[in-house]
Amino acid sequence: MSVADVKKNAQDRMAKSIETLKADLAKVRTGRAHTGILDHVMVEYYGNPTPINQVANLTLVDARTIGVQPFEKKMAATIEKAIRDADLGLNPSSQGDQIRVPTPALTEERRKEMVKLCKSEAEDAKVAVRNIRRDANESLKKLVKDKAISEDDERRGSDEVQKLTDKAIVDIDKLVAEKEKEVLTV
């Protein structure tokens, strides 16, 4: 293992942390409807929990309504129940074989809660990035101890890992600022 390997590993893991944050932020509701809200809803399909997008077609009917078209008509009631039980504050209603999921307008108080949630997700991502930095620095110290690299190489490597960490944290802050702006926009 070399300094480049440690750096590459840290970079990959930091990128995964940022991707995870993006996925978590996509689940946070804004004032507008988007199908990503329902991504983590699981529907009981022949005894197995299945993601909703594998048993129904999700579309946007208008700015505040998501349309859910089950692939099998008999699944409509199960899908409706799964959406209601997902604790998203959504109340789906059936219209024939189509399910309409209106997204209620967010109150000012609810928007502030959503912003807090976004900041909490960001803090978790920053902690993950810092843990990756710590692991990388420990790997570099181990390489010095095993006489695989010099102390100068270790110092340069830890400086590069710190630069990666700083960049990742700036990216996290940008993502959260964008989502915060989106949530607070009425």
Task: Please give a structural write-up.
Belongs to the RRF family. This is Ribosome-recycling factor. It is found in: Cytoplasm. The protein is an alpha+beta fold and 186 residues long. 58% of the residues lie in helices and 16% in strands. It has helices at residues 3-27, 76-85, 108-145, 151-184, and strands at residues 42-45, 48-51, 56-62, 65-70, 93-95, 98-102. Strands 3-4-6-5 form a 4-stranded antiparallel sheet, covered by helices on one side. A two-stranded antiparallel ribbon has the order 1-2. Helix 1 (3-27) runs antiparallel to helix 3, helix 1 (3-27) packs parallel to helix 4 and helix 3 (108-145) packs antiparallel against helix 4. 26% of the residues are buried.
CATH superfamily grouping of the largest domain: Ribosome-recycling factor
Share in helix: 55-70%
CATH architecture of the largest domain: Orthogonal Bundle
Distance between the termini: 52 Å
Give, in spatial order, the strands making up the sheet with the most strands. 3-4-6-5
Task: Give the strand tally.
Answer: 6
Count of the domains: 2
Q: What is the CATH fold-level name of the largest domain?
A: Topoisomerase I, Chain A, domain 4
* CATH classification class of the largest domain: Mainly Alpha
Look at the structure and give the mean pLDDT.
Answer: 88
Cα gyration radius (Å) = 22 Å
Ranges where pLDDT stays below 50 over 5 or more residues in a row are none
Largest sheet, in brief, is: 4 strands, antiparallel
- The general outline is elongated
Q: Report the total helices.
A: 4
- What letter string, H or E per element, gives the SSE order? HEEEEHEEHH
**Structural class label:** alpha+beta
Bin the strand percentage: 15-25%
Main location: cytoplasm
GO molecular function: ribosomal large subunit binding
Family: Belongs to the RRF family.
GO cellular component, one term: cytosol
